[in-house]
Design brief:
The protein has helices at about 1-15, 15-35, 40-45, 50-70, 75-80, 80-85, 90-110, 115-125, 130-160, 165-185, 190-200, 200-210, 215-240. By secondary structure, the protein is mostly helical. It has one domain (about 1-240). It is globular, with a radius of gyration of 19 Å.
C-alpha cells in the first residue's frame, strides 16, 4: 500500500495534475471570497468566511473527480491493473493506496486557504473577532467531503476504462450526494420523511459541522459513506479482473 501511495503522489506532483487542481481551486474560491463584489468578504463588512465554505464544496465536486478519474480507468485501459494484482498486494491495499494519495492532495489544496483566516483575524474589529470554532469545524467538513468525493470518484473510475466517463459519473454522483438529496428533501414539505431524506445528503452533515458541532453522527456518516464506496470499488475490481 505504501508503494502505491508514493507512486500516485509522485505521479500527481511529477505532472501538472496536482498543481492545476490546486491552482483552479484557489483561484476560484479566492475570486468569490475576495474579488466578486456581490460576494466579497471585503464588501460584506463582517469577518466571516461563509462564502468560501459555500463555494468550496461545489468546486470540489468537479476537482476531486478530476483527480480520481485516471486512478483505475487508466490502469484498466493500459492493461496494468492485472499486472498490479499479480504482485503481493491485495485489492484493498491497491485501492486504499490510491485513495490516500487523493486525500492528501485534497488536504494540501486546502492548506493555503489558512491565509484567509489569518487575514480576517487581522481585519476583525476588534482584531480576532471571528468564529474560530465554526471555521475549524467547516474545514473538518471540507476534509470529510473531499474524502467522500474521493471514494465516489474511485468507484466511478473502476467502472470504465474511459477517464472522461469516469469524471462525469463521479461529478454527477457527488452533486447528487451533496445538493441533490437536499433539493429532493425540499420537495417534501415537512415531517420525518423530509428530515430522513435530508440526512442522507452530505450537505446536511457538512452544515452541522460548520456550526462547530462535531457530532459523532456526522463523522460516522462521512466515514461510512466513504467506506461504502471504497467497498463497491473493491468489489468491482474483483469481479472484472
Amino acid at each position: 500500500m505504501k508503494q502505491i501511495f508514493q507512486k500516485e503522489l509522485t505521479g500527481f506532483f511529477g505532472s501538472l495534475i496536482a498543481y492545476i487542481v490546486m491552482g483552479v481551486f484557489l483561484v476560484t474560491v479566492g475570486l468569490f471570497t475576495w474579488v466578486f463584489p456581490e460576494d466579497s468578504v471585503l464588501q460584506y463588512g463582517y469577518a466571516d468566511l461563509g462564502i468560501f465554505f459555500t463555494v468550496a464544496p461545489y468546486v470540489f465536486i468537479f476537482l476531486v473527480p478530476a483527480l480520481t478519474m485516471r486512478m483505475l480507468a487508466e490502469e484498466r485501459k493500459m492493461g496494468t491493473l492485472e499486472v498490479l494484482l499479480t504482485r503481493p498486494i491485495s485489492v484493498w491495499e491497491l485501492v486504499l493506496g490510491k485513495y490516500s494519495a487523493v486525500l492528501v492532495v485534497c488536504i494540501l489544496t486546502l492548506l493555503p486557504t489558512g491565509l484567509y483566516y489569518l487575514t480576517l483575524y487581522q481585519l476583525g474589529n476588534p482584531r480576532g473577532n471571528l468564529d474560530t470554532s465554526g471555521i475549524l469545524g467547516s474545514y473538518f467538513g471540507l476534509i470529510f467531503l473531499g474524502a467522500l468525493f474521493g471514494a465516489v470518484g474511485m468507484w466511478a473510475s473502476s467502472l470504465t476504462a474511459n477517464q472522461i466517463v469516469a469524471f462525469l459519473v463521479a461529478a454527477f454522483l457527488c452533486f447528487v450526494l451533496y445538493a441533490g438529496l437536499d433539493s429532493l428533501a425540499g420537495l417534501i414539505s415537512t415531517g420525518s420523511r423530509h428530515l430522513q431524506v435530508k440526512q442522507l445528503g452530505a450537505l446536511y452533515h457538512y452544515e452541522a459541522m460548520s456550526l462547530a458541532l462535531l457530532d459523532s453522527r456526522d463523522i460516522i456518516y462521512f466515514v461510512s459513506m466513504s467506506g461504502l464506496f471504497l467497498f463497491f470499488t473493491v468489489l468491482r475490481i474483483k469481479h472484472t479482473v
